[in-house]
């Protein structure tokens, strides 16, 4: 009975999230400094007119940022869920694997040494930096007799992040041009990127989503303890390897196209556990669209806060998400991993 009730609840939550995602997409395409009616948005897709300014705004500006919001939000939510499962650490998010710090160093290197000055040009550098940092943390954290221990991985991630952050600050304090270009990218947002940036990382993100789904059953067993999972015949090392690869692809791709957006990968899994429980299959299934909903709504809210200017989505996620997570922490019933 309990299992059936959780399944029904998960289906209701999934349906609700999909409806919210449809609303978020519509708002993302229509809301902004230039409001565009839903019918005009639809017409821009069905009968585009190059002479119509509304159609141009929808197709050239808002479609790319909406697609980026969907991909980056889904990727970060899934990455956070897998990280928390692998490390059995409820505070795990993309930062624990040094992803954001690695991407930042790579972007700064591209600005300083190669003269790259546009967010679209940062894509592969950010992806490579994020991936390399995550791999370094995973390899070091998995070595030794206690390799793979959650605490060891967390400490390794903290050490790598600290070292890379020091490198970033050294560059920023000695290169004014790098600081001017980097500061906009570093807050995390969906603007100033085109569909060309999406094309560059869509395959890694989709592959990361597939690999995250493959990990679901293994994460449920690891939650019981690695010794228990091994005793039940599960290959923990295989799940860990697949999960780390999924994290690298998801975090690298999301950071490359949206910048180092923090907190989303921490927030979404905790909210969903409060709604559907700790089974990783519904958490991952619902987490992808839920992450997209959070990031798209944050982007829309950022356009409304200070018109005609905008507040970047990464800042809105942190400001709005913090009270939500605090309310979960203060609840009497703890949310178990």
TrEMBL record:
Membrane topology note: Multi-pass membrane protein
Source organism, top-level taxon: Bacteria
Family matches, as InterPro entries: ABC_BtuC-like, ABC_transptr_permease_BtuC
Keyword Cytoplasm: no
Main location: membrane
Subcellular location: Cell membrane
Keyword Lipoprotein attributed: no
Keywords annotated in UniProt: Cell membrane, Membrane, Transmembrane, Transmembrane helix, Transport
CDD domains: TM_ABC_iron-siderophores_like
Transmembrane segments: 12-33, 66-83, 95-116, 122-141, 153-174, 194-216, 242-268, 280-301, 313-330
Family the entry assigns: Belongs to the binding-protein-dependent transport system permease family. FecCD subfamily.
Protein name: FecCD family ABC transporter permease
Organismal lineage: Bacteria, Bacillati, Actinomycetota, Actinomycetes, Micrococcales
